[in-house]
């Protein structure tokens, strides 16, 4: 999952924690409820069930939320990202507030993409197929004013479910990966919301 805020050249990558499993499960259920008709229609047109996969990370200076619409039985997906500046030591906004804002922003973008007039194009190809339909999509990080706050949005064709499986494989087979995970947890403790550790289910 590509983040928006890049580390300085030569600097070690920032540590992060995954979003809590309870949170990602709740967002998935909300999306499945709110977009059920659109998901069903898209699945019928594409010939594959469409399932939202929710993930994200909390970094020391950024919260990243991602929703991937995965076409089951294929490696195909369309992913939607929201990045927000974050200071874990600030009194506000808290991580929970930013996550709520991110969910609303991604939901608003999904509502546009899943309009009935775009479903045929989406079912036939990637998000780029929608550009010819007149829909403007942020294929690079783009600052957007949403609910009087600035968020940063991006879309691509990455399959976040496959990315997660790769991280799980590393967690189970690379001893250094486990050691780094434990360091991450120690650094994160008490600073912001923590979720499942990389490699946990």
Could you explain how this protein is built, in words?
The chain is of the alpha+beta class. The protein has one domain (17-188). Helix content is 40%, strand content 21%. The protein contains six helices and six strands; from the N terminus they run E-H-H-E-E-E-H-H-E-E-H-H. The protein has a six-stranded antiparallel beta sheet. A hairpin with a 3-residue loop joins strand 2 and strand 3 (62-71). Helix 2 runs parallel beside helix 4 (116-124). The longest helix has 19 residues, at 95-113. The chain is globular, with a radius of gyration of 17 Å. It starts with 16 loop residues before the first strand and ends in a 13-residue tail after the last helix. Mean pLDDT is 84; it is low at 191-201.
